[in-house]
Design a protein that fits this description.
Layout: H1 2-7, E1 13-17, H2 28-45, E2 53-57, H3 63-80, H4 84-102
Parallel strand pairs: 1-2
């Protein structure tokens, strides 16, 4: 799903899971963290950048902490700018718009 998010135009992905050691699905959050780490490595390898995906662990009652993590993630992604894929899409879109306007 993470890779699909990037394919669909996301510039970053934030994954949120239960606190470690306190997951209804026993080790689901640990498996999720391992997957996020593998995906970060893959994103580095393909030139998108592993820093564009991160997992955070919180409890359902930590809304303020969730908001802080979300804001940190938004700031990081804004600083990084669009992924190379999205930058290329935007360039193609702008070039196509110029041709359409010119006739």
């Amino acid at each position: 799903m993470i890779l699909k998010a990037f394919e669909n135009g996301a510039d970053g992905v934030m994954v949120v899971g239960c606190l470690e050691g306190d997951c209804h699905y026993l080790s689901g959050n640990l498996r999720a963290r391992a997957r996020v780490q593998r995906m970060a490595g893959l994103l580095d390898q393909i030139g998108i950048g592993g820093e564009r995906v991160q997992m955070f662990n919180l409890s359902a009652g930590e809304g303020t902490k969730f908001a802080r993590f979300a804001q940190e993630m938004v700031e990081r992604i804004r600083a990084l700018g669009p992924t190379p894929v999205n930058a290329a899409r935007r360039r193609r879109g702008n070039a196509g718009a110029g041709r359409d306007a010119a006739g």
